[in-house]
Amino acid sequence: MDSRNPPVLRPEHPTPRPLALLAQEFGLEHTGSLDGVEVTGVTLSTGDLRPGDLYAGIQGAHSHGAQFASRAAEQGAVALLTDPAGAELAAGSGLPVLLVDDPRAALGEVSAWVYRTGADSANLPLLFATTGTNGKTSTSYLLEGILRQLGLVTGLSSTAERHVGDLTVVSRLTTPEASEMHALLARMREGGVRAVAVEVSAQALTWRRVDGLVFDVVAFTNLSHDHLDDYADMEEYFRAKLELFEPEHGRRGVVCLDTSWGRRVVDESRIPVTTVATRGHASDEDYDAAQWTVEILEESAAYSEFRLTGPDGRALVTREPLIGWHMAANAALAIVMLVEAGFELEAIGAALDADGGIRAYLPGRTERVSGERGPSVYVDFGHSPDAFENTLGAVRRFTPGRTIMVFGADGDRDATKRHEMARVAAELSDVLVITDHHPRFEDPASIRATLLDGARLAEHQPEETYEVSPPEEAIRKAVSLAKEGDSILWAGPGHQDYRDIRGVRTPYSARELARAALHEAGWA
Ligand SMILES: CC(=O)N[C@H]1[C@@H](OP(=O)(O)OP(=O)(O)OC[C@H]2O[C@@H](n3ccc(=O)[nH]c3=O)[C@H](O)[C@@H]2O)O[C@H](CO)[C@@H](O)[C@@H]1O[C@H](C)C(=O)N[C@@H](C)C(=O)N[C@H](CCC(=O)O)C(=O)O
Ligand SMILES: Nc1ncnc2c1ncn2[C@@H]1O[C@H](COP(=O)(O)OP(=O)(O)OP(=O)(O)O)[C@@H](O)[C@H]1O
């Protein structure tokens, strides 16, 4: 599979639907004849278009999709859904045109109609959604893992992968565009999937990628500094996430109170919500007020054990093969989501006990890539100050020797978080290796310089700080400095298998590079 252009999953046996009926049911103005025209799919990208598709021509940041209508027609599109400006651009394409004011706003409902995946459709799986700054992917994988332990065929849509039962494909966006989302759901239904965990980004809500879906349970993990390139300030970023807690998107909600933004979600949500808080991490007031509470009972570099206590005093004690209190918070959130969906806490407990705890593999989330001998090496997807604090803090707690942090920062993404990321990294590590991540169109040397400046702001300075480019050299350097008992945390790349350098996705795997560096150093 080419990870630079992973496939879009669609139903294998779509049922054609008459386009004239779509126009009639949605009351759409149209040009060109719709007589006998049947539609089997929807896309907003000519790169993914299949014969029989309705092509949605939307105004993007760079171009208007309708200008590619002739190409869409050549590739077998049966019609174009666009706005008046798009209709003009597509005049020579020969495609019938369905007119709407805002095609992006129409895309969810139209896709739900074409794929029969709207909220009132038959045989839809149970739908779970998770939003928040950190922990969406982790919570979604944990939720999917527990659902599997409960014996259900599952689906997953995350930053890392999409799953349909045992089928796995690499993801492009965290949350796919609405047309892809509905196609994926239709494919899941075809594959007998009974429950789906979906990760919903703030951008997905802003760009209406989950329109036409009503999740049975939605969840909020936390909010902290990120994405202030896409949103003017934290308030605007918060408001984008809050959309998931509207009746159009969720029936019931579970809110984690570990950051103070959780309380805001509870106050402003328009659906019934329950709350969960972690001892020692939520404020005392929020911990006391929470309906569900989480206490860490035992922690090691190999697992975390916790107790989840419900509103009526019922409790569940379990463990997960993950490091850090935040992963226990994510697991607890997943369990409360299941209870809100109607699963019995006792049944969940029994299924987990039978397996000795939660079974979940989280690709590139504090993933240990080292073997029995030598330093412990973890590859992580963290790219925000809060993620660094929690992940580095957890690794440090279980490291008898020195903690070595390797990281870079995304180019062309929220530059305002770079100083704080570097400050936190310096504060909590013994050795800092500053390197490159995805430079995109920025100068990597100037990103590194900003990170070095940020690191100098830390009160506690690492024993050693290095600036090493490119990252394959940086991980070699880190491994060369490490001894038995030391840990290396390489934060940023996580599961990803490419680097974006000037718009080109260069194949690259931090996990493989870290293993190769260990091998070269004789630790394999
Ligand atoms: C800001 C944003 O969300 N941009 C999305 C948008 O791109 P765009 O507006 O630049 O599109 P454009 O290039 O102007 O093209 C306009 C239209 O013409 C179509 N087109 C264009 C060229 C062509 O040859 N054929 C064709 O059909 C495009 O598919 C598009 O529909 O429409 C594209 C098509 O769906 C998306 O891939 C793209 O996401 C980009 C890649 C992106 O990086 N988005 C980020 C901000 C994002 O959404 N991130 C979040 C979460 C991240 C996190 O949590 O860390 C996510 O959910 O992934
Ligand atoms: N509940 C949490 N609180 C704080 N940090 C967390 C939490 N859960 C995970 N993290 C850390 O945040 C980083 C990203 O984790 P994860 O991929 O699960 O989050 P995400 O919300 O999916 O992120 P993204 O939106 O970038 O995909 C990792 O470093 C992880 O260790």
Automatic annotation (TrEMBL):
The modification N6-carboxylysine is found at K241. Keywords: ATP-binding, Cell cycle, Cell division, Cell shape, Cell wall biogenesis/degradation, Cytoplasm, Ligase, Magnesium, Nucleotide-binding, Peptidoglycan synthesis. Its cofactor is Mg(2+). Its main location: cytoplasm. Residues 39-111 form the Mur ligase N-terminal catalytic domain. Pfam families: Mur_ligase, Mur_ligase_C, Mur_ligase_M. Residues 364-493 form the Mur ligase C-terminal domain. SUPFAM superfamilies: MurD-like peptide ligases, catalytic domain (SSF53623), MurD-like peptide ligases, peptide-binding domain (SSF53244), MurE/MurF N-terminal domain (SSF63418). Its EC number is 6.3.2.-. ATP binds at G132, T133, N134, G135, K136, T137, S138. PANTHER family: MUR LIGASE FAMILY MEMBER, UDP-N-ACETYLMURAMOYL-L-ALANYL-D-GLUTAMATE--2,6-DIAMINOPIMELATE LIGASE MURE HOMOLOG, CHLOROPLASTIC. This is UDP-N-acetylmuramyl-tripeptide synthetase.
